[in-house]
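Below is how a single chain appears once it has passed through the pipeline. First comes the sequence as given, then the structure the pipeline wrote out for it. We keep one example in the README because the format questions we get most often are answered faster by looking than by reading.
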Amino acid sequence: MTPTPVRQHLSHAGAVPRVDRGARARDWAEIQERMLVPLYEAVYERLEVDSGTRLLGLGCGTGLALLMAASRGASVTGVDCGACERLALARERLGPAPWGTRACAGARIVEGSPRDAAPAPDEPAYNLVTAFEPIGCAAGDAETLEEQLVAAAPFTEHGTPVVLAGWGPPERCSTASVLRVAAKLADPERGGGGWRPARRDDLEEAAQRCGLRPDGSGRVACPFGYADMDSALRGMLSTGLFDATDQEQVDKELAEALHPHRRADGTVWMPNVFRYLIARTP
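Resulting structure:
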């Protein structure tokens, strides 16, 4: 078998590639985001998320994790910066339903920093903070996350659990071989690249730098499964890690990297393990 053609993702030779951010956001919401559902479920089950939970989701993206928490009765607020296309989809998911009711009563989606998501003076503080975007996916993401955690801390109760997430050991993550394409070719100035293999203590070190106290961790199987090669390409490209000046070369090498994970029935399957850390605010 040969890799599926990726002409629909290629730019004209010599042209500056233009990324359709709206299409990428939809691909993230419809294809890629669901790959982390086992992680969300494991965390919510362990922390017994319910109607007493007041959740602040950092880097909430298109809001699937918030929607799952709200389905358990939680009051949810999501905050993100620089991802307006994804936030628009989050507002659709969590906003008014077609029949006039709210899909998630009281849900808030905020563009900006955690300070912009501060509870109103008459509202209780948050008692759960989640940061499900895996550390190590992009250059400088750990530093950005730490800034967000420090900014969010004043709006939480004493001892509030804060959940950080990251990739598991590279030898247990089939997608690592694909992400190396981003590390090698993608352009950090365009928002892509910067991926590196996870280190054992990434999450603990980030928590400690923010003054958080580690209080347990876990590992969750999160296989990346796609109906076909086109879905796999669209899903991986939707992460934003592969944006590059020479997008044609990235797309070519991405298809080649995905090819070993293509099964006889045309589906693409990559077993992965993700790790999460629960830390507590002072």
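The radius of gyration is 19 Å.

See the next section for the split statistics.
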